[in-house]
């Protein structure tokens, strides 16, 4: 469905199907209702087919028999009508704009922004479509890319073809908020390195790591946005480029990796669009802190609690993570990725990364 | 050694009046402000106790008047049985003198200290004697005395004594002058209000300088006067038992039966055999070594609790509710009188009540009213076992939020009635921590908590039903509208849903294109007599069904339609207008009625 | 000094001058010392010449007579030596990397990252040079630009010429962390609109506001980075394009405007490089909330305190700000810029912005 | 009315023993655990008071032994003056009997209740009489009695009485048996430790079952026994004045001079004229109306405070410090005895002490020791005026952090000595809030706070000087090194700075290229005798200046050079080696000495 027209039509049909179910329920004298999977940590399962974590079989049904649920469904009906209008007029808007537009919806008006966010997520689950298909724009755009990749972006000002090394400044190519409008043309990369910090992104660029090893550098900018995760997924799936993730060595950074590789609990229904199960974590590992004697800070209480929570998270159930997390709890230390600078500014590009990438088989030297 | 002789010369007995003169804060006279409240409280305690004994409905006058400077005159006058002139001096001017200390029964005053301490305090601060008038019956004259306490000996001194005519047939009046301030006025009125709540048979008239207040009675039954009972074996300590046995030459079994509550033939025999003592041995011959096993036996053999109903005078659930209704506006009141119980041989009964809603403040800690033997406790709430028992109940179980104390529009009343209330100090501000008492308070509050929860649930359930009705009748039609728009079809008819789900009478009013449409659906299974009231600026002159009745007032038209609506049928009317106003129907039970104004 | 070589040489000389002063002090038997302006809110002044707020005359002198100050100066000496090496070898690094490199500096080792940050700021003040001249890279790169502007960026991979409308994707051109490497080639813009939120950036793009009015859109991404502020300054100064700022209507957003227009207190020494005194604030103004009846939230206690602090801030001393802030305190309300959506998705581009830009004379219609 | 007669029959006097038997918690006997501490405390109070009166150094034995079950025997034995046999029964077995109640002077016991209450408690829980042995001198025999209290009358009953031989020439021993638990052991030892701190002239030997402890004396001076004084006019209440005037037929002026402290000719005359009373009027003829202006006059005319030194016995600053040193390890101790002061006519003196550092825990609230008349207060710290006075001082002024109470390694001791300590209750746990007392505590603590601040500042200043030396001698050379590197010149010589700034003797040791270089610079203005000690693994066989002395021990060489170093000159030596070890110099005052190891 890369043709926008076709995509919009299919989306409209899906939404109308939902409305039609309610219509028929009411017409038959039944209170309209809707069924959704339960959205908690205890209802996510590993799906062998798609290799991602997605919602399990626990479901909850909501019917319009109470004022609260009825109002909720009324809001959903208004949102569907609003999306239908956007599709028809080829408009788009942010969730926040829709929240303000609901000012005119009387009883269906949203009273808090996360109410509208949650409702759109429900619609994603019901339709099994991403919100981008609804012309709902995220607030944040995606990460920066720098490396041997050529893309063709379908912009409002026409088609633009951009090479992410030759046609961009040092800050790289900025992933737009709707990745579906980007076509991946070609590349000659050995892998994508997704980096947590801008400092490391620049370090690799300055040291010419992208050229020397033909790697695509991607600056995650903290917890990656949907657009960033979708882009990683597509580079991996469509272009078959291996993805590795290089972050700080603390529990919050492991969650960044987890959201890239396994998907997030909040968006488990989107995992098959957003998760890259083959993405590999290359550091900073707790064992790196030990083996490379990295400058480190003490774990805070929050860090320790987060690590313990990860030990009970099914997504961190592998032997690798169990061993590393337990080691970290034992050491009581965490390090940032730039801590490698204590061995000199070139250490990370000359020693650490080549060794790691060879070890996991991405570089064959 | 000569020194010991020298020291010995200085050793002498100290009078209890001297002791408390020096330590007046121990009796609640630590500040002038507090002194005035303590004085009035002690006088009222005595009045109420006396009226109870005489089975008279108490009518009590309290007067506080500033005499100039910081000197106040306090008067408390009752219609009790009066005091015979021979006893008046000792009752008012001797500490540790009274009728109730040795009795095992519930009274407000117990130690015979309170009112004499007030007299002591008055003479200490102003040097003035206390004036007492008392009359014991219509046939005798009243006696008027001025009294002081001789501190060195704790003996009364009568400065003057005369017989006078008096307006009351019987009763007692006491007038004291002492230094104080009227900062205590608020606390004083609070004290009287709370006293009135737990003494609903009493009337209080209060005069403070030129203001007057009345706390009226809501019950005309004098509560039965508690009867003194014999001590219970479980509450005896070894030293006391030793004293009792030494003073009696009865045989052991008879001694046990005669001396103690709830000990009969069988129990007495059992005690003797457990203690391995001859039932016929004269008790004054029993040695200390044998008293120990005897006491153990008395306290291990199963003996029923003392009959609380005789020696105690609980307020009763009914009168607590009346008392609270009188002084507070509440949505829910429930009181609970627990069965009698015993700690250390003292009978006690716990009573509690919970009030909810009404004019209570909806935020902050619950309002807590503590009482001991019908006397409100005003100070040291934090140090009181009642407070900690309240805090230890898990109120969240009953739908009440809690941070230490329960929070929200709640009033909690706890009354501990006992033959000997365990106060933390002689100033009687707080009940000491006694596990048995705390347990009873907890049980009473838990029972009341369950009742409160039922009330809150019922209130919530009513809300829920209303909520459901609103969903069906007001929101689903809007969903139908919007869904119709999405699927590009006319909106589905939702009346079928309403009928199925609701089983009620539904009134809907709405406007569209300048026309007002009102519809009543009887979804119940019975015929309904409905009067439809529609009050607005529209005259409804062109109504499709003309109203049965129309009135106009300042541009507002009240239109009334009366119909008998058979089960499953509907009534509809429309007219040209701008809508707004009020719509309602009469004749339908509240729980079957749904009114929806679609324009709101 | 746009020639990098020349720039590096000048920088090196400045740094060596500092060291030479110390050298001479010690050689003469004096304890080395250094004098700096006091860096507080109470020592900033409006400079009539440069039209920006900068540090006033209050100064504090630090001499190596206590262990703490001596260690501080030792660290400064190490940093100067480190920068000298970077200039010589044409390397660069982030502040964080320098922090880790200091692991090997024995007594001169940094014990916290903000210690090294503060020290580099001190050096900026002493040398009157930006840290970019020291080859110290910021962690964060700059904002996105979309509009009729052509730039030439001197990258590590050679010179790149980029048109910020034609040669980029929808996410726009990403300002690199060192703006000194960017040459502003040409433009045909009427103004630069600096926007707080990504949602509004996309809205203006979708509605074609950049094309219709020839405006450059710049997404500030929250509190603007140094690179962003420097870029705004240069567009305004070198290309003479008027700059307007469009943010949410709350005290924190006014601070975003203030940092663009007046400079920040923390970096007052850099104001003449970073501040754009002619930048105008076009909304959301408290009076807009009232006049357009915008959906609004109640001010929190923090908001009220922040507004009151602004009333006592010399930078907000104008009549305009006094009136608006007092009005806001009176209303007790704040609104987001996307709240204009309650009047429809086009309201902001068809009504509000044209009216505002005409009112301040940027658009002549 | 017949009822009043009936009621009258029940009215009778209540003995104070009965009263306290029923209310034993008011005296600190509310639980078995607490009962044992209260008992020992009361016995020790009496012993210490008696020894003070007899000017004997107290030697007190305390023994607690479990007899089986929950029964304990407590023994307290002293070497005091003893009690004559005639008085023994009343002293130990009659409440409100004693020598100190009517005296205006500082004593531990005051009311004559404490020890008798313990006897009452013992006989109540075990039925056992109390055994007392007392001997008043070497010439008489000891008397041994077993005693109980007749509760109904509060009169002692002597069960046995014999004369015996006794090992002590004079003293008293009391043995009580009662029910308790030994959970109180920790608290008991704490009580004894604190008692020992404020009674540094006493020795306590303690036996608890088979363990024994000793708290020894640090002073051999018996504190002077406080002398009773006359009451002060400021502390008199009207009722008391009335009593005093009624009992005297002196002329007013003489009455004032005779009866009160600090009233002389002139003051008495002034009182008379302010009160507008004839100085010659006999006081028993003065009417109540005139007493009021008299009292006002007595309390408005300026009269000096009573001479505290007579009637009070402060511990004194010196002995407080000794007592604290004995029981705590501290870096700083300072004590302060305030001048005497007066509240409500009662003389009092506040003493306080602050200890800092040492083994005190560095976190958490300050340790607070409260004392009243040399008796530690162990319970109800939160309710005590001492605690609130401490909390109300702004400790941050003195460099001490504070959250309510001061925090950190601080010990605060406060002792209130008074002719009548205002306790909040007869259990004597807490001092009641009296503004005059609180003010004195505050002043004492503020004075001590300033001393503490000086101490902390001096400590900080020493740190500062060391800090400066470190900057000059250790860091500046490194700066010179680095700056030289930057400007591409040889590093500047920093010895000039050192000399100018330091005016000290600087020893530097450093290594470079396998050679160890040691240099001493005498930057002072005087010649210095220096012994340089260099202890390391290097033998310094090739030293440029051979050491005056070398020893070797397990591979460590101690090399010593001795030199007289004139002002401004230096000494230098170098040798081949690996460095490390210790370097130091002797013969230089600590504040002139700087030792820098450049390799560390």
TrEMBL record, chains A, C:
Keywords: ATP-binding, DNA-binding, Isomerase, Magnesium, Metal-binding, Nucleotide-binding, Topoisomerase
Residues reported to bind Mg(2+): 196, 248
GO molecular-function term, one example from the UniProt record: DNA topoisomerase type II (double strand cut, ATP-hydrolyzing) activity
Catalytic activity field: ATP-dependent breakage, passage and rejoining of double-stranded DNA
Record-linked CDD domains: TOPRIM_TopoIIB_SPO
Residues forming the catalytic site: 100 (o-(5'-phospho-dna)-tyrosine intermediate)
Role this protein plays: Relaxes both positive and negative superturns and exhibits a strong decatenase activity.
Protein name: Type 2 DNA topoisomerase 6 subunit A
Classification of source organism: Archaea, Methanobacteriati, Methanobacteriota, Stenosarchaea group, Methanomicrobia
Gene: top6A
From TrEMBL, chains B, D:
Record-level Gene Ontology MF annotations: DNA topoisomerase type II (double strand cut, ATP-hydrolyzing) activity
Annotated binding of ATP, by residue: 46, 78, 99-100, 109-116, 428
Catalytic activity annotation: ATP-dependent breakage, passage and rejoining of double-stranded DNA
Enzyme Commission no: 5.6.2.2
InterPro entries membership: HATPase_C_sf, HATPase_dom, Ribosomal_Su5_D2-typ_SF, Ribosomal_uS13-like_H2TH, Ribsml_uS5_D2-typ_fold_subgr, Top6b_C, TopoVI_B, TopoVI_B_transducer
Catalytic class of the enzyme: isomerase
Keyword Cytoplasm: no
Keyword list, A-Z: ATP-binding, DNA-binding, Isomerase, Nucleotide-binding, Topoisomerase
Alphabetical list of Pfam families matching this protein: HATPase_c (PF02518), Top6b_C (PF18000), Topo-VIb_trans (PF09239)
Histidine kinase/HSP90-like ATPase domain span: 31-182
Superkingdom per UniProt: Archaea
Cited PANTHER family: DNA TOPOISOMERASE 6 SUBUNIT B
Family the UniProt entry places it in: Belongs to the TOP6B family.
Subunit details: Homodimer. Heterotetramer of two Top6A and two Top6B chains.
Function noted in UniProt: Relaxes both positive and negative superturns and exhibits a strong decatenase activity.
Protein name: Type 2 DNA topoisomerase 6 subunit B
